[in-house]
Amino acid sequence: MTTQFGPTYVRAIAPYIAGKPISEVARQFGLDEARIVKLASNENPLGMPESAQRAIAQAASDLGRYPDSNGFELKAALAARYDVPPEWITLGNGSNDILEIAAHAFVEKGQSIVYSQYSFAVYALATQGLGGRAIVTPAVKHGHDLDAMLAAIADDTRLVFVANPNNPTGTFIDGATLEAFIAKVPRDVVVVLDEAYTEYLAADKRYDSIAWARRYPNLLVSRTFSKAYGLAGLRVGFAIAQPALTDLMNRLRQPFNVNSLAQAAAIAALGDSAFLEKSAALNAEGYRVLTGAFDRLGLEYVPSDGNFVLVRVGSDDDAGNRVNLELLKQGVIVRPVGNYGLPQWLRVTIGLPEENAAFVAALERTLAPA
Ligand SMILES: *Cc1c(COP(=O)(O)O)cnc(C)c1O
């Protein structure tokens, strides 16, 4: 018998499936990189803001030194923006890091974590990575069933993950409903509210989760610079919570988990409200175009409040992979979501107008009767 390394719960982990890189698709299908359209990872189609590029160029001269372990300047900027003390902020190597640190900081091996079916893949990974027990509640209309999640909280539950808007489905819970849920969660259970797409919310849907962090000592709000701020490649996210939570997060994080370029770029992007507005407007327009095309083609989709749309491309369980392959051959990369238990669906990131048009044209060619 060959030796098996590691704990059973680590061996049981299904690896995260990322969006295919442009270079890989170019090699695999013999395509020109410049003509490939990637709508697979919910990146900002505008790329990195110029303000951040300038900040990086400046910070690059000092890369011989370690980054500021405490992220003084970035935390100061975030503290001013959100009107919380810097001690309430934890920085992460992407918000993925925040989610992982939270799971390890608040949950022991064998204890349980509650999250919803069809919610972000990292919740399962973080749970499995520490040998935790996952309690997964069935989704309703592809979104979180908060009543079921509340009812599922067990004696040994220490953490609940909620994504709002959720990825990969784009579903949204309104502020009043969400706060009522948080108020009902037992105070010894940490609620990690993952708001990776909050900057894309329409004005009438916004709510103030930072105010809730002041009210509920068991709430940790997670945000990222990867999506609307356009800094996915730099890896920077943050959490806001009261010191009782933040203290533990800070003990567990790697001392230099956010690099110098990321800190500098995040400060610049945080101050670049024009870029955020442009990104949100572009996204809203792209959403209308994509969902208009889906309506025209008679395709079911889940209404989304993020920068992506989940669309059903067939009624058999090979549909997602089959259509995905045809799109790849035409140089369009989207995300099959069979690993989420959604094999008939594809998740499409909203791109630039020309990218959206290329995707729709490729999809139409793929679905046209032979
Ligand atoms: C993209 C995403 C994240 C993490 O992104 P980072 O790049 O690690 O900050 C977290 N939560 C959700 C729901 C996401 O979609």
Automatic annotation (TrEMBL):
Pathway linked to the protein: Amino-acid biosynthesis; L-histidine biosynthesis; L-histidine from 5-phospho-alpha-D-ribose 1-diphosphate: step 7/9
UniProt catalytic activity: L-histidinol phosphate + 2-oxoglutarate = 3-(imidazol-4-yl)-2-oxopropyl phosphate + L-glutamate
Gene3D superfamilies found in the cross-reference section: Aspartate Aminotransferase, domain 1, Type I PLP-dependent aspartate aminotransferase-like (Major domain)
UniProt keyword terms in alphabetical order: Amino-acid biosynthesis, Aminotransferase, Histidine biosynthesis, Pyridoxal phosphate, Transferase
Pfam families linked to this entry: Aminotran_1_2
A GO biological process held by the record: L-histidine biosynthetic process
Protein name: Histidinol-phosphate aminotransferase
Source organism of this protein record: Paraburkholderia caballeronis
Gene (name only): hisC
